[in-house]
Amino acid sequence: MSVEFCDTKVIVYAYDLSAGAKRTQSLKLLRHLWKSGDGALSMQVLQETFVTLTRKAVPPLAPLDARAIVSDLSTWKVIEPGRQDILDAIDGALRWRVSFWDAMVLTAARKADAAVIWSEDLGDGQRYDGIVVRNPFRLGAEQ
Fold this sequence. Notes:
This protein is an alpha/beta fold and 143 residues long. The chain has helices at residues 8-13, 21-36, 43-55, 63-73, 83-96, 100-111, and strands spanning 3-6, 39-42, 77-79, 114-118, 127-128, 131-134. Strands 3-2-1-4-6-5 form a 6-stranded mixed beta sheet. Strand 5 (127-128) and strand 6 (131-134) form a beta hairpin.
């Protein structure tokens, strides 16, 4: 079954009251992924989501509120990286010319058999080993 992988910022914007139109789009996408059951993410995304929500969101969320969000998201397909995934991400970072952390996201999405990665940080329309990047904040992004 093909899934849709969410990067951290896409999730965080849904809970950041200062995110404006990005918040609206993120909420729409997350509702779609909840309803369809197609949402996927990684341990890295869960960790980054908690840290970002409690330190950078406006206003920052209380740790127990952020924990509840991470707990809910943990019911999605969650990819837990292993040793080989780290080595694959290093190789991918060199091959794709992206940061190691972006390569970890791409490696996790590939491991999840994702068809799409929803990300603001990776180039919209870019393909990585058959997975297409979609920026939900670009006009005409399909959801």
